[in-house]
Amino acid sequence: MKIFISHKDVDSDVATQINKYLSSRGIQTYLDVLDNSVSGSGKKLTQHLMRQLNQCTHLMTILSKDTRYSWWVPFEIGMASQRRFPIANYLVEGVSLPSFLEYWPRLKRLSDLDKYIIAIHKPEVELNKSFEYKGLEYSDQFHKYLKSIL
């Protein structure tokens, strides 16, 4: 399990704080501000981010009022959605979400990360038993479970 932390550059402090919190609890993450190999733009950067996303299993987005000015966060959400990643949004105070982002669980404070960690450690088998809807994919079950404990 490895979590890709997606954020706009102005939210790097929040992303770094979340990264430290998760890492201190043994969760592997990818955060581009810690990646010295990130350079350039265009095709090279796109390929790099795609490689990193392909090495992850979950996506956490940091959403603030500035995210609407990002090209990369929607790109990363789209890639993760296509791969059926479990996605969670961490909301920076004062942000309101467009309706298409309200589907995924919303974390609003650092203490919500503990519930997120519980959800990512809950085995897929347990999630399957927890829900009566047998046709739900793992990511859908994860979203439903995390929402239920938030």
UniProtKB/TrEMBL annotation:
It comes from the Bacteria. Residues 3-84 form the TIR domain. GO terms for biological process: signal transduction. Keywords: Receptor. InterPro entries: TIR_dom, Toll_tir_struct_dom_sf. It holds the Pfam family TIR_2. This is Toll/interleukin-1 receptor domain-containing protein. It comes from Metallumcola ferriviriculae.
